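User: Predict the structure for this protein chain, please.
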Amino acid sequence: MTNYQLIINILGWTGSVLFLLAYALVSLKKADGDSLLYQGINIVAGVFLVIYTFSLGAFATTGLNAVWVAIGLFTLGRKWLRRN
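Assistant: Here is the predicted structure, written as structure tokens:
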């Protein structure tokens, strides 16, 4: 396995674990669905999985994760605008 492949695999596993962590936090009521913590974890996880799935050529999953990231950014942006 090359260093590139290792990094890609680490990104994929890390993204998967982060998605599960975010889901667990909301399910256990440790974070709100529109919180910076939840959305931030989802955005980072989504970016990692976009890179991972794109490198595998899994473009449908890449698109899904890209939309997931966009929803997180939109949610945080809307929350920020409401504060100001």
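The longest helix spans residues 3-27.
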